[in-house]
Design goal:
The protein is of the alpha+beta class. It has two domains: 11-152, Peptide Deformylase (Alpha-Beta Complex), CATH 3.90.45.10; 153-184. The protein has helices at 25-40, 131-144, 155-172; strands spanning 45-47, 57-61, 71-83, 86-90, 100-104, 107-116, 121-130. The strands form two sheets. It has a five-stranded antiparallel β-sheet. Strands 4-5 form a two-stranded antiparallel ribbon. Strand 6 and strand 7 form a beta hairpin. The longest helix is centred in the C-terminal third of the chain and has 18 residues, at 155-172. The radius of gyration is 16 Å and the shape is globular. The chain binds zinc ion. Zinc ion is lined by residues 92-94, 139, 143, 184.
């Protein structure tokens, strides 16, 4: 089911999510909803608190980031190692049409429970990611901790970027239906 995506400055985006202890039907259903919603909005990644859910769960479009086929659903992802630095343009489903250049580690190792979409079970795993894959994973882990991509900008730049973005959104009086470009 496609869920409504919360748009900044919705307070729930600042909500830190809670570790999933029991991988039950509710969690599986949310995982499938995250995939449906990400597909509908053509995002590269999505986190549960972006659709108003408190579970520590996120999904990534592997094909969209050219890391294979299908979708990666991770429960309780934790960053255990990072290295290097890379600057690239980044967007977010909760900030339609906002893109900023951000510095992120170029390599990361993440530990998580990965959903096996065939058996529908969560399996403990460790993921090594570089480039865009590392960027998307770190963007989603930030979301799950209530951190937004704009938080990585220097404070003055952040204020300027947000002011321009909000004016732009208002002046268009636009209802956000569907992103026409890929966003995380
Ligand atoms: Zn995002």
């Amino acid at each position: 089911m496609v869920r409504k995506i919360l748009i900044y400055p919705d307070k729930f985006l600042r909500q830190k999510t809670i570790e999933i202890k029991e991988f039950n039907f509710e969690v599986l259903q949310l995982a499938l909803d995250l995939i449906d919603t990400m597909r509908a909005y053509e995002g590269l990644g999505i986190s549960a608190n972006q659709v108003g859910e408190i579970h520590r769960l996120c999904a990534i479009d592997l094909e969209g980031i050219k890391e294979g086929k299908g979708y990666l659903v991770l429960a309780n992802p934790i960053l255990i190692y990072k290295e290097g630095s890379e600057i690239d343009e980044e967007g977010c489903l909760s900030f339609p049409e906002l893109y900023v250049k951000l510095e992120r580690p170029s390599f990361a190792i993440i530990r998580a429970h990965k959903l096996n979409l065939k058996t529908r079970e969560f399996e403990e795993t460790e993921i090594q990611a570089k480039g865009l894959f590392a960027r998307v994973l770190l963007h989603e882990i930030d979301h799950l901790n209530g951190i937004l991509f704009i938080d990585h900008l220097p404070i003055e730049k952040r204020a300027k970027v947000l002011k321009e973005w909000m004016e732009n959104i208002k002046s268009k009086q636009k209802v956000y239906e569907k992103a026409n470009v890929k966003t995380i």
